[in-house]
């Protein structure tokens, strides 16, 4: 008499397999989402670097930094003086993309005496065709969010991406970056509900801008 051989999976075995597969899939989804956000952040950071280079290049060509785009057409607004010192990044004038990796526009702020058409500032003799001098100082400050420690001061210009959460910004540090004043916060990424921060910022260091202007023979 031959024993009948049972083939296939029993219901219990099948259930175990499904549980294991579910655990494996669930464990892989979280790292995948983190990887995707990192990819987007890296791409946006590269955009910001290109924007800083474009701003310096614009100053070398025009003797001043561009005004912000205040009406959403991608063109800077203001000739003798800027219509506003904070607005959108003038991406058409700069020849760069309009949106970050999450499809949102960049914010751009500039110190007025680095972007007007008047020669120089009152701190020293003016250089024809250049809106600022070696002694000119920007009015933008960046803090680290911890007890008001300085990250950068006297900045001529800054560009901001509000990150993935954009309009859902809720933390005080993210709110600081969208309140329209000269103070900004740059600190590490956090998805903690009480201290969310995913903003990305880049700024034009005054000494780098001025050094480029001197090297080009535009400032003494």
Describe this entry's structure for a reader.
This protein is an alpha+beta fold and 220 residues long. It has one domain (12-215). It has four helices and seven strands. It has helices at 11-62, 91-94, 172-176, 206-215; strands at residues 86-88, 107-110, 140-143, 150-155, 157-161, 183-185, 200-204. The strands form two sheets. A four-stranded antiparallel sheet has the order 1-2-5-7. A three-stranded mixed sheet has the order 4-3-6. It is elongated and about 90 Å long. The chain starts with 10 loop residues before the first helix and ends in a 5-residue tail after the last helix.
Offer a quick outline of the entry.
The protein has 220 residues and is of the alpha+beta class. The chain has helices spanning 11-62, 91-94, 172-176, 206-215; strands at 86-88, 107-110, 140-143, 150-155, 157-161, 183-185, 200-204.
